[in-house]
Structures are given as structure tokens and as C-alpha cells.
Inverse folding.
């Protein structure tokens, strides 16, 4: 993608962007080089999309043929028009996963869409992209039970025997819940997983792969990096997964590469359709969508690494990936910058807690969902508090709470050097609150889960 060319197209055809440039004193004719482009004001929800009528955000002031709604994880839900052309571009990312990792061109594939249906962005968009693959000749059949677990475990046993493989698509904790509670012979159906929306650990990948009977986690579990604003921006490849697995046991090398010892999602993207920039540790992207976006700041912490630079880095540290290509740049994503808890000056990340719950001595008791808080008591002392959802049928016990707390603390000390250095030893042990599955206050069924408060 030529970002300068995209800029001129958007400036000429999108009424809201023309006004935005005028407000900032930008003459489009003077933007002729990449250096000029890099000096353009950033757009955000607050300064751009929420300030203009929806038609004015679209080319020619015309809303597209489908509207999706964001999940509203950062506030009020937003509306995002889509078109069939948007779907075809993003279907390329699905094709790379289904064709490259899952060999779906040669296998009859049942795609089970477990994202929320209705106006929300995930479900219907995923259905559409999978059907585009069917139009391209892939022997894919789609069924969309959405987030109704009872329907998921009802339809899969009926349909799966007619296919060579079953691909479940959904948010990581929900797919884990389905696999854990379905009491189904997953290994018999050659299951694969496509996830989106959250960073997960390599311990999570290995754990869920084992429970689903996935023999090769590198080619059997793939994450998409997407946003409601622009659909899927990048996808895991066997190469990116191999590199991430290598780094998962090496916090020092991860910190050297990413600036932090916690592990981000690591995907590859197509620079022909998306242009990424890094700004003060966060990501900007530009792309032609139902709402064309130029230098759009999505508040995701992360960065961009050229293909050759990342391969050189891991080779210097003694790792030679077995998977080849594609020779495209990488983007890494930690998630939204405000999804952390500050405790004694240390940033505590949900990823640190998740790994503690995914350890062998604990994972059988818990679903993987939790809420991280720094709670102030009546004396105004703060305590790191983790509310944890138990597996269906499990009841809270002191034994489970102690094991969970010890596992979380061990991973915090291993992965988060800031926590180990800043937090006084007597205050390091987290306070654990256990809740039964589906607790209405912390883990209401069907709602998009938030890991911090």
C-alpha cells in the first residue's frame, strides 16, 4: 500500500476527513512524501470518528451495505459500515490460516462460528469471510451457533462425522470453556482453533491443544489480530507461532525484542493493504475500509518488526525456525494500554495472571477467566486481588485458593521483574476470591469478559 496515495484518495472523497484536515491546517497538496505523511495528525475515535455523522466518515458520504457494532470495550459502542469488498480483502487473512495452517483446500472442513452473532462485529463478519473461501473453491461448510454453548455441543456431534476436520472460531476463553464443558470426543474430529480479541500465552495454546486433541499446536491454533474499526489486520502463521513459542520461555530475550518480558500476540500482515506505524509504544494503522482510516490510533500497545530483522534476532539467539515465510513484516500487540493494574508502582498485566492459571497444578480447577483489581480496604491499604472463575461443578475451597495464589505469584515473580522489584515481599501474595462458574457479578454468561477493573 502506498500510504500517500491512500491519503489523497481519502482527503478527496471522505467529507469528514476533509474537514479534519482543514481544522488542523493541513493542505493535502503539500503531502507528497512518506515523511510528509508521517507528520499528519493522528485520527482517533475521540477526535475523528465520534465527532462526525456516520455518512460523512464514508467515501462520498454514502454508508456501506452492512453495519457492524463494536463491542464497546472502551466505552460507548461504535458503528462501522462494511462492504463486500472489505470482506474479500480480509478473507485473504482467513485463507492464509485455513489454507496455509489447516490444509483446508484438501480437507472437507466444518467451520463452527462461536463469536457473538447479531450486530456485533465478530460473528457475521467471520461467517462472511468463511463463505468467501467457499466461493474460492475451499470445501468449507459454515455453521453459526454463536455463543450458545448448548447449541454448539448439540450441532457438532451431528455434523462433525461428515467432515475431515472441524474448525472452532471464537474468543480464547470461550473456546476453552466449550472444549472443557462439552464432554465430547474432540480428538476424533481433527479439531483446529481460530481465536481473536485477546492475547493468550503459549501455555494456554498447549493446554487447549492437549484437551482438544490437537497434535500440532503450531499449525492447529491460530490467532487473528483484528479490530472493529477495520476488521482483521494480521494473522498468526506457523512461522510467527514458532518464534513466539521460542520466546515464551525466554523473558530476557522477549524483553530485549519487545521492550517487556510479557509476551504479545505476534502476527504477520500484508503491507499491500495495511500500513502500520509505531508511535510511543503504540500502533497506528492506515487502510481502506468501509470507514477509510488514515494514521488511526487504536490505543493498542505494540510495534512493528521487519521480516529480516526478526529472523536475524532469533537466529542470533540460536533458533532456526522450521516454518518458511511468508516474507512479510510482523506486528506485535500487547493489547489496550489501559488494561493493566498499577500496584506499588508496578504494572501488573492480565497475561501474567493467565499463565499462573494455566499451570498443570491449577488448570483443572479453573476456566481461565478472572478479574484483576487493586482493592483498597477500610484502612486504605491496597491489595492485589484476583477473582477467579471455577470450572462447572467446582466449589470454592481453601485448598484451591491457596494453590491458585501460589501459582499466580510464582509466574508474577518469574515474568514481571517490575513486580518483583517494586512490590514489598509481604504484599506480593495476591488475595484470591473464587467464584462458581457463571457468577452473575464477575462472569455473567454471554457477556464479553473484561479482565481488569
Amino acid at each position: 500500500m502506498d500510504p500517500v496515495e491512500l491519503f489523497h484518495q481519502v482527503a478527496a472523497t471522505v467529507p469528514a476527513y476533509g474537514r479534519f484536515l482543514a481544522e488542523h491546517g493541513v493542505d493535502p497538496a503539500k503531502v507528497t512524501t512518506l515523511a510528509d505523511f508521517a507528520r499528519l495528525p493522528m485520527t482517533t475515535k475521540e477526535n475523528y470518528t465520534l465527532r462526525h455523522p456516520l455518512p460523512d466518515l464514508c467515501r462520498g458520504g454514502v454508508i456501506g451495505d452492512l453495519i457492524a457494532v463494536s463491542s464497546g470495550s472502551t466505552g460507548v459502542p461504535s458503528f462501522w459500515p462494511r462492504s463486500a469488498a472489505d470482506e474479500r480483502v480480509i478473507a485473504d487473512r482467513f485463507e492464509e490460516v485455513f489454507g496455509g495452517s489447516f490444509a483446508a483446500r484438501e480437507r472437507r472442513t466444518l467451520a463452527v462460528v462461536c463469536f457473538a452473532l447479531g450486530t456485533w462485529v465478530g460473528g457475521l463478519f467471520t461467517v462472511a469471510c468463511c463463505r468467501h473461501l467457499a466461493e474460492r473453491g475451499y470445501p468449507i461448510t459454515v455453521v453459526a451457533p454463536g455463543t450458545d454453548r448448548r447449541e454448539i455441543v448439540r450441532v457438532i456431534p451431528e455434523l462433525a462425522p461428515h467432515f475431515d476436520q472441524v474448525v472452532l472460531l471464537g474468543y480464547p476463553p470461550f473456546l476453552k470453556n466449550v472444549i472443557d464443558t462439552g464432554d465430547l470426543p474432540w480428538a476424533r474430529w481433527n479439531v483446529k482453533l481460530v481465536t481473536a480479541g485477546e492475547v493468550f500465552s503459549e501455555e494456554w495454546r498447549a493446554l487447549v491443544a492437549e484437551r482438544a486433541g490437537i497434535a500440532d499446536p503450531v499449525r492447529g491454533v491460530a490467532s487473528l489480530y483484528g479490530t472493529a474499526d477495520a476488521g482483521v489486520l494480521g494473522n498468526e502463521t506457523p512461522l510467527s507461532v514458532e518464534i513466539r513459542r521460542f520466546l515464551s520461555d525466554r523473558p530476557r530475550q522477549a524483553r530485549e525484542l519487545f521492550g517487556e518480558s510479557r509476551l504479545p500476540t505476534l502476527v504477520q500482515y500484508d503491507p499491500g493493504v495495511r500500513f502500520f506505524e509505531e508511535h510511543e509504544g503504540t500502533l497506528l494503522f492506515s487502510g481502506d475500509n468501509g470507514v477509510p482510516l488514515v494514521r488511526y490510533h487504536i490505543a493498542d500497545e505494540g510495534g512493528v518488526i521487519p521480516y529480516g530483522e526478526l529472523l536475524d534476532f532469533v537466529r542470533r539467539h540460536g533458533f532456526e525456525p522450521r516454518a518458511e515465510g511468508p516474507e512479510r513484516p510482523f506486528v506485535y500487540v500487547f493489547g489496550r494500554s489501559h488494561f493493566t493494574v498499577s500496584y506499588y508502582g508496578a504494572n501488573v498485566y492480565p497475561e501474567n495472571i493467565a499463565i499462573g492459571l494455566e499451570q498443570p497444578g491449577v488448570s483443572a480447577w479453573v476456566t481461565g477467566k478472572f478479574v484483576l483489581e487493586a482493592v483498597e480496604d477500610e484502612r486504605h491499604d491496597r491489595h492485589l486481588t484476583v477473582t477467579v472463575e471455577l470450572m462447572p461443578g467446582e466449589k470454592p475451597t481453601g485448598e484451591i485458593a491457596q494453590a491458585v495464589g501460589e501459582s499466580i505469584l510464582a509466574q508474577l515473580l518469574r515474568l514481571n521483574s517490575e513486580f518483583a522489584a517494586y512490590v514489598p515481599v509481604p504484599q506480593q501474595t495476591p488475595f484470591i476470591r473464587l467464584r462458581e462458574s457463571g457468577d452473575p457479578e464477575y462472569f455473567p454468561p454471554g457477556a464479553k469478559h473484561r479482565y481488569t477493573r
In short: The longest strand covers residues 293-305. The two ends are 39 Å apart (CA to CA). Residues 84-335 form a domain with the Rossmann fold fold (CATH 3.40.50.12780). The mean pLDDT is 91.
